[in-house]
Amino acid sequence: MNKAKFFLFSFGIYFLSNFIVLSTNAQLKRNIKYGLSVIEIYLYYNHDKYPEFRHHASPVSDDVINIKGNSFGIDIGYKFRVSKKIQLKPFLGYYRFSFNNIDNYVEAFNVHAKGRETTLTPPGIDFPIATYKYFYYCLNIGISGERNILLKRYLIIAAGGAINNYITMYQKYFHKYNDPLFPTVNPHVSKRTDYFGFRADAFAKIFVSFEKFRIGPIINLPIFTLWKKDSIFPGETNNGIRDKWLNGLGVGITANYLIK
Prior knowledge:
With about 260 residues, the protein is mainly beta.
């Protein structure tokens, strides 16, 4: 997917999410007969395996890089019914998009390293350092839809899907370089604000109800994930992208409060 396609894709998703958010009040007025509205808080953890890629470290050798990530997030949304069984939820949240388990196979030496080369050269040295984990701290703007599969007085089972849009505002790159003669800030921090990525999920959840409160676990499956490359790594720009299908799993807990 080239830069133009990424721009059109991200703009379309962003426009769709915001259109639904802005139309929430109108939807509520048209569908008030369907009953209760809900404030929902969702706390979750995602584990992802990212696709393998190569970095041409030298004319005669490649670094083959595999990365896994353990990411955390929290969202709060306003959920309302559009039919007797279907609900929509615009939401806003925080997400730490993580790359924290790196395997770098150096073909020329037949060895595995636990870091990824960067373009960072601390004062006093003339070679770049490597990062062994790095995080993108993001604002998450999205929309989800779900359908009740089982609806009882004290038990609800639902399934659905969600669209997430990630806007990064803060980034950290952890490294192991430590020279007392040339002290270096660890982690290295940058504060770039940018549209970072997109994620489409499927999920299933179980609620236990106590009057106006509902709480229960959720299982989340990433269907498609897309994120930007990073100019802090050699050979990359902030406009390049990578993507993946599946290869991940999420778990979390969700709490609802019925407001009317």
